[in-house]
């Protein structure tokens, strides 16, 4: 049984996703929006906690908590759901900026740094996936002449771009680390799986399984290639040991 840590999309919003991942024979550790929501997470093979997204110490503590609960972490999923974030930060008011930056940017920076340090310490095989469920910006909507869609706020659009840049740079860490594999995954607004977290989770679990079965370590070329959710993941290698 593989163990999966999910960062980004939180309970209760990620419950459907987490249950689908657990349905693939995995234990799942995630994050809840609040202690009150954390207390409601009572499902077989699904666990959660809360953390301070503006603290590197809290990020490190979260990793240790997940290891203690799961015994070991085989997979880490960074899930940037721009559509979900749009429901929380739908304007660019000054009072939303600080919280929005912590939740959509700072948290990912701190956690990826702490995770990489932990991976270096343990040197145990692990798969890391960056999943972005994209939402179009005002600029993209005007450029494509798309009608009937309310554009993402500037802060969500900026955070989405930041997340993709972070993912691409993190993917280069596979060089010289045969114990680390990375998946970059995009789910565009026009993707047929976009509205189904269950379907996206099924694809993620299948992609993780594909990487677990690789004969050889990834190269930076393949770890840094964006994969369309729903399509065959690009590996560049034959499967099965």
Explain what the structure shows.
The structure is a single chain. This protein has a single domain (2-228), classed as Rossmann fold (3-Layer(aba) Sandwich), CATH 3.40.50. The two termini are 18 Å apart. It has helices at residues 15-22, 35-39, 56-70, 82-86, 94-122, 138-144, 154-171, 197-212, 220-223; strands at 2-7, 26-31, 46-49, 75-81, 126-133, 180-187, 226-228. A seven-stranded parallel sheet has the order 3-2-1-4-5-6-7, with helices on both faces. Helix 1 links the parallel strand 1 (2-7) and strand 2. It has 241 residues and is an alpha/beta fold. The model is unreliable at 237-241 (pLDDT under 50). Helix 3 packs across helix 5.
N-end to C-end Cα span: 18 Å
Low-confidence runs of at least 5 consecutive residues:
237-241
Mean pLDDT across the residues is: 94
Record field, number of beta strands: 7
H/E element sequence = EHEHEHEHHEHHEHHE
Number of helices: 9
Shape: globular
Proportion in β-strands: 15-25%
Read across the widest sheet, the strand sequence of neighbours is 3-2-1-4-5-6-7
Radius of gyration: 17 Å
Number of domains: 1
Provide the CATH topology.
Rossmann fold
Question: Helix coverage percent of residues?
Answer: 40-55%
The CATH architecture can be named as: 3-Layer(aba) Sandwich
